[in-house]
Predict the 3D structure of the following.
Amino acid sequence: MPTPRMYRGALATAATLLLAGCASTNPDTALHASAGQARALAGVEPRLLRNDDDRRALAAEIDDLVRQPLSLDAAVRIAILNHPGLQAQYWDAGIAQADLAQASRLRNPSFGFSRMSGGGSVEIERGVSLDLAGLLTMPLRQRMAARRHEQATLQVAAAIERHAIATRRAWIEAVAAGQALDYARQVAAAADASSELMERMTLAGNASALDLARESSFHAEAGAAVLRAARARDAARERLTRQLGLWGAQAGYILPERLPDLPAQAVALSGIERLAIERRLDVRAARADAAGTAADLGLTRTTRMVNVLDLGYASKSETGEARSEGYEVSLELPLFDWGGARVARAEGLYMQALGRVAETAVNARSEARAGYLGYRASHDVARHYRDHVIPLRKKIAEETLLRYNGMLASPFELLADAREQAAAVHAAIEALKDFWLAEADLEAALGGRLPPSPSATHVHAHEHKEAQ
Amino acid sequence: MTNRRSFLTGAGVTMLGASLVSKAGAATLPEAPVHSSAATAAPLAPPSGRPYNPVVTLNGWTLPWRMKDGVKEFHLVAEPVVRELAPGMQANLWGYNGQSPGPTIEVVEGDRVRIFVTNKLPEHTSVHWHGQLLPCGMDGVTGLTQPGIQPGKTFVYEFVARHAGTFMYHPHADEMQQMAMGMMGFWVTHPKNPRQHAVDRDYVMLLSSYDIEPGSYTPRTNTMLDFNLWTINSRVFPGLDPMVARLGDKVRIRVGNLTMTNHPIHLHGHRFEVAGTDGGWVPKSARWPEVTTDVAVGQMRAIEFVADAPGDWAFHCHKSHHTMNAMGHDVPTLIGVDHRGVAEKINKLVPGYMVMGDKGGSMGDMKMPLPANTLPMMSGDGPFGNLEMGGMFTVLKVREGLARGDYRDPGWYRHPAGSVAREWTGDVPAPTSAPDARPAPAPAGQALDARKPGAKDGGGHHHH
């Protein structure tokens, strides 16, 4: 039973906590924790757009970025700063922050007043009561809220990460689709030259209508391929635009003509599973979730008997009677519900959370391995195209030209080869695209950027030196 | 044209093939000389045996022999060789004693001949003595008259060269592959009396064909008709040496055809007579004059004429594709095709593209880079420019005052003043033209319109 002294002590504690809680409801501060995570992941620090000034400043920044061909980093920057969905999510951090502040506050005291009159007498009862159990368990609940806040922070950071990765993928797809369109146009140009030459041959009487129809039908199909490639390019671009959250004039950004070159070497990573476990937000979120349920469990255990413990000051005055004062305590009697079910439920939730942590960790390890293997393999494929397939196609083109020189081959063979060459280049672009996508997947699986690989130019210079 | 090539004597370039046979065998086998040059060797005057007037194998040589107990012993070694078809092109062929075709064998009517054949090919072979009248077991047909000569084995053939004439030898084992790879050689049986049929210069040549993909070295042996290199003694113009004759010389040219098509052999500036086949000499009364004689597949023809016209005279197969080197037989004709605009489009896609063929096939003096080991389709520098020839083409050079037995290339003919075709710079008379007898063109549409008059548009066939 709390004594008046305890009562005074509890009030003092409540006052301190009230003051402490007031300082931490700023959503910018709340986002700051997530921002740190995001900077590590995407190299960009998100910020909240709170008013028109913020929006104008961002618009000016984006205008600068879209003035030149949009690089991958610029795309990620725009997406993180500008995407309205992300902006909405950033407020989650603020909401969690507010929840945390709320948890540090004591439930408001309740004031009770009753007035009863009858038979000429009036009876007035006044009472102020305080949630004593709440006060006593406040540190526990605060820890819980802090963990929930951390979870929210991680969730916002995870949303940023997901969005950054999705933006990178969209950028890679959009640039590659642009390149694919270029090559479809080259094929069509070769077909165009071919059919025009055949048309001239028909005019000169050297070819038949059948020859011309065959050449022209190929040209027509190449034209259809250009239309399809253009449609694919437009769709890929719109996906990127949505990721960036751009509209209006800013949606008219231009993209680079080519994907970045293949890094000379794939990044060699050791201990990728450890990296994934350390860095992945889903693993950390699962852990935080488990820690949160542990706190819940602790609270539930603590309050299994005493769910409601209200301590109050009571004063009663009745007509003709002396005013009487005292306190009242209301306590739930653990008669029917000893809280066992609640504890069991909390325990179940806790064990479930632990299970989720284990599952997330196992998946993270596997995804890290798969991501790394995919990354290495796609680097091998792209390098194979760059170092073997494309040089061989070049060699074929040279040799075909030599045969044309010797009147051993016709211009049509040159043009057919030009078409095949474009097809090989197209496959090489696909391989390069697959590599960059695999890199994005690996970064998602590892929960962070890869260390930079040795730069391509450096290695080329080295090779050049060796060639001399 | 590769004239003024050093004219090599046989002795300078033949080597003893001592390593070919075992020491024990060396005592019993004659030497197997090897020839390493594709130049024309000087005629081999017979060092022993009956005398005869030796022949000259154009871009080839004659196989030396030894006399043993009155028998002429030769040693042929069948082996893979690298033959220069013309400067700038080597071919991986099979041949005999270092060259394809193999060395010419010269004997005299009535000679007893013993020929050792060592097989250094990766498969069995045999030698068929084409046109010889000999015991059946010496005819060299694997399976029919003898087992194949297995790799590393040496067989011996022995018979009497019964009739004077023009013959050849080639395998009769896996014939299609081995002949497509260049296995063949010339055989001349001289008459007993050297004065009989005597001529001043006697050239021999075998016609063969190869299909060597531009950029490659080995013939495609499964090709049947679409060969791309038509050769005289496995040489193509401009790699062929000229045939040289002194003004007034009696000249004989013996041609054997081991390709898979006939060759109308044509000589400029002279009339000749077909004097012999592989069946023997044609009686004088039966010869008829020609400037072109067709040499059918598997045949030999000896033509004779007096070189009475000084100058440089073309000698070639008259099938025009046979006087070309490798060409694209599927290349469409571009003559008269207007390339304006299209050429630029192609050039954007194929840097280095250049319009060719729109004015004809003549490439003039364009020196375009070609695939490795590939000769230009037509080439050869003459005194008046490019000859635009290849394949089965060479030149008969008739000159005054050459020494007997001088086969050196005398250089280009110096024409007497005023005897060369020249540009006319005077007035050109107006051409006389026939009256225009062509009917006026039909009004548009009428000629092509097969509809009955009165048929409704689009439904014509309903009324048929």
